[in-house]
Design goal:
Order of helices and strands: HHHHHHHHHHHHH
Number of strands: 0
Structural class: mainly alpha
Helix content: over 70%
Strand content: under 5%
Shape: globular
């Protein structure tokens, strides 16, 4: 009995110790985790688009002159060549990028402490940050990230972590179909695409995480942000009239606002 009691005294309850950790140490640990995640995430923003362009270039090289004569394929080759010349993030760009994962980790711990919810929010926030960065530079939203995020959201909501499973499933379907229908209507009126399929999949992923009730707020924030950025670029001469802008970063912003400011946005969600 004495030996058992001594071993019990010597044993460490890591769960209680982590929750009892002083807040400054928790924030410091969160910032360190975010900083450690920043470098591999920065590499991902370079390697993932490059791999996609390399795959497309290889598929094009395997085709005959008919594919090479296609104007869309030639434009894709040119875009791939431009992307391959992008150097790894360094200097000020790397500092700016690293601030994102650090902020995500800090906000997740501030809002949820050292819990599963905080870990899930870190994965969500980091993925959204990478997607926004890639889309701004290449106009791509890789399926491996958007669809992976959607499936992860559905799996987490099997335990109703952020929404009920039925809301998550309906949210994924509604997110995809709503933007698909909007783009189809735009194409019928203007004769060109208004957004890409990656945007549909990204909103489906957001719906899978937070359910269909969250979609109107996310789209409202994304549309408002897109209009403001588009006007600013137009006024500063950095965007031609009628030139499209990447919508993915604005969807990521809407999802991030929902994830890290849910309490303040609750009246908007319930309205």
């Amino acid at each position: 009995m004495r030996r058992r009691s001594e071993s019990a005294m010597l044993s460490i309850d890591w769960h209680m110790m982590l929750h009892a950790m002083p807040e400054p140490w928790m924030l410091g640990a969160a910032a360190l985790v975010g900083l450690m995640a920043a470098l591999p995430l920065a590499r991902l923003t370079r390697r993932l688009p490059q791999r996609l362009f390399d795959d497309w270039a290889q598929a094009q090289a395997d085709s005959d002159a008919q594919a090479q004569a296609d104007s869309d394929a030639q434009a894709l080759e040119q875009q791939g060549a431009e992307t391959s010349s992008i150097e790894p993030l360094k200097g000020l760009a790397l500092i700016v990028f690293s601030a994102g994962p650090m902020a995500v980790a800090l906000l997740a711990v501030i809002e949820h402490g050292l819990t599963l919810d905080a870990g899930a929010l870190c994965v969500l926030g980091w993925t959204l940050w990478v997607l926004a960065w890639i889309d701004m530079e290449t106009r791509l939203l890789p399926d491996v990230l958007t669809l992976g995020l959607m499936w992860l959201g559905l799996l987490l909501n099997c335990a109703e972590l952020f929404a009920s499973l039925d809301q998550a499933v309906i949210g994924a379907a509604a997110g995809y179909c709503s933007l698909w229908l909007l783009n189809a209507a735009y194409k019928s009126l203007r004769g060109k695409e208004g957004m890409g399929a990656g945007d549909f999949k990204l909103l489906a992923a957001i719906g899978a995480w937070y359910g269909y009730p969250a979609l109107p707020a996310v789209v409202f924030i994304a549309a408002s942000s897109g209009v403001i950025v588009g006007l600013c670029l137009r006024l500063t001469g950095r965007r031609e009239r009628g030139e499209a802008i990447a919508f993915g970063p604005h969807l990521c912003l809407g999802a991030a606002c929902l994830a890290f400011a849910e309490q303040s946005m609750r009246p908007l969600l319930s309205s």
